[in-house]
Please model this.
Amino acid sequence: VILVGHSAGGLSVTSSIHKFPKKISLAVYIAATMLKFGFQTDEDLKDGVPELSEHGDVYELGFGLGPEHPPTSALIKPEYRRKLLYHMSPQQECALAALLMRPGPVLALTTAKVEEKGQEVEEHVPRVYIKTLHDRVMKPEQQEAMMKKWPPREAYEVDSDHSPFFSNPFVLFGLLIKAAVSVGSPI
Model:
């Protein structure tokens, strides 16, 4: 099995490789949160959570536990999506993505932690990181900080916004094939 996670999906990849290290041949993170044990420290939050306040009030927040509690979900407002998520992507891809966009479980994601179970993860599951060079959500410096803390086996770069599957799909596809071949996976 090869797991691929984009953005906050990196947390699910990390959780899976901790739970099933012998069943996964490769973990690929694309502009993704790659923290060995999830959000354990303030530094982890700084590195792994998008900081978009410089753009203003960009989120529609949901308060599933009531207005007196922290938000439980977040969705980037329509007027900010192109600027933040898809500024290098074709317009038709942005329109399609807008139809599929759903709120993210922000409370669950920012409190995600993985139990430490020794070195098994590093020994059994090679990781590849694909850095998006023009990302306005998971900024390149955040991606670098996570790679420095938990170095992957390989790191690639793609000339892309936060959504390389729209803005540079052929290069992304090539990097995914290269990553799979590097661990001897059949394609």
